[in-house]
Fold:
Amino acid sequence: MNRTFVFATALATGLAASSLLAQTTTHAPATARPAAPAAQAEVKPEAIPAKVAVIAFEQGVVATNEGQRAVLEIQKKYEPKKTAIDAQSAELDSLKKQYQALPTTISDEERASRLKSIDDKTKALQRDVEDAQNSYNTDVQEAYGKVAQKFGGTAVKYAQDHGFTLLLNIGGQQQLPTVLWWQRETDITQATIDAYNVASGVPAPPPQAPTAPRRAPAAAPHQ
Structure:
């Protein structure tokens, strides 16, 4: 993926399931004494054998068939915009070369006019790139969030079904690693990806040919 279009955004990966308990209220007669509240049983923590699993959550979300399909669909959506930006960049490069090749006999007014045109087109190109980048990132973040929510549920279910007592994310962007070391056998990333692909029913996308990254527009020359 080129520098203009990046896949960047990390979302929360901790998922918790909760349930609501319906409560019914009865009104006792005025002469009746209110019933004493039932004593709540105290839940004490219990030491159990630990079985820890790790998962590269962000990488796993993107590696699912549904995640890959979402990225390809977004890239296809922005392909026309990318083509237009490439054309703007090519035109700007041509104008810069023409400016550099101007003869020394050209008037100062003509030279200043061409330089202003280059500056205006450079600013316009930078605005278009920034707008496309922001719009692209918004679509990617939204698509990632939808898959991440379901992928997190699959990861938790897999950990519970296989007797793990703790699930740690090793795929975050923290400056300090969450986990310093783990046994390879405890990594359930690929197993979760496989389970998610089966549950989603989304087929694997066809392989894509690699594309060369596009260079960012260079600064306009100055007199």
Remarks:
- Confidence is low (pLDDT under 50) at residues 1-34, 215-223.
- The CA atoms of residues 62 and 68 lie 6 Å apart.
- DSSP finds five helices and two strands in the chain.
